[in-house]
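Example is below:
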Amino acid sequence: MELLKEVLERIKPSEEERALVNAVTQEILKIAEEEIGKKDLEVTPRLVGSIAKDTYLSGDHDVDLFLAFPLEVPLEELRKIGLELGKAIGKRLESYEIAYAEHPYVRAFYKGFDVDIVPCYNVKSWREVKTAVDRSLLHTEWVVKHLDGRNDEVRLLKKFLKGINAYGSEVYVRGFSGYLTELLIIKYGSFMNLLENVEFLGKGKIIDLEGWLKKEPEIAYKTVEREGESPLIVIDPVDPRRNVASSLSWEKFGVFYFKAKEFVEKPGIGFFFPSKAKAGDYKALLKKKGTNLVTLLFPKPELVDDVLLPQLERSAKGFEKSLKREGFEVFDLNWGYTEKAFIMLEVDRVERPRVILKPGPEFLGERALDFYTKNQKVWIRGKRLYSEKEVKEGIVDVIEDLLTKNQVALGKNLREVIKNAEILINFVPPELEEEAYLFLSKEKWNIKG
């Protein structure tokens, strides 16, 4: 297909770019080897990830340098020495910082490349895996051995997924990981064959490239049983205990499903390189739809996206649940940040009827007959008359009351800032107007999970 050739020309690294990537990665490896030698350590520096597998996209130069320690090194020692070694390497690059995952690692920058320097164990099989990152060595080896020249097919799939906002296994994305894209191409042979078989992919659900269900049935079937609610179960070819697609959400799989169907029916460059959507007037859209927009605005905490965005999602879903309990229909949710963090809720109404108690006079007094005549519902408690009155209660008051009573499930780092949030009804500041329109429009080109 000519279209795919055109896409490849734009996303495949040129020979000059390849030469640069190879030269820089070799420099980084040489620095690592020198620092290992200085400390007289039995550590093997290994390149993993898309650069090592040659599945990276043009302009995407993330270097994953793993420092593989012998299995007999205690975990605490690996963490301590691994961090010291990573810092020593980072000091010889342009800049570095310490980042945290299962254990601390170094994130550095060198000649335009982001470099992750990660300590791990030098494992040879899944039975030796001690930390989550150890498998990366095995992943790289397995993909290099089985990809069989289909590197460009992986590139097409990665770019397609990026174009439809379904790429990335981070907790705030929950899309397709790079490793998952490689395994899908190995399974289906090509980008187009995968898209043409997306129906079978969804219904077949289980992919077992290494035959673990036969080789290690007890372990592999436990994985299948545990992951039964996932949209896909891709038993890791290097570890039968793991579903490679465990982080993939139904929403992101759904986006891929529909976009794949659309592309097969009518291919277009826009799937890979989407043009910026033209935002319209969100106020006119609200008027047309007859719904309402509630936006909570609050200062953005200094948290990394991996922490902040899941907590924003949890908080948005907390408001949805609490408001539904209070009688408001919540159609959809949105969250994120620009200068400030925000939560958007599209709701059916911003007022609800509420009955309040209306105390009257004692029934033997002069005003008792007047109160009795004017009110439809009247009762007596002791000597006093009572009635009830229907009033309109605004959603802002309801939200504030819920927050005061701690009746909304919020992200633990966001509780205080959200309690003091600014609550806007059918209005957003200028920097959120486009976001509000895209959220409310629900156009298919903007489908998101």
Observations:
- The mean pLDDT is 93.
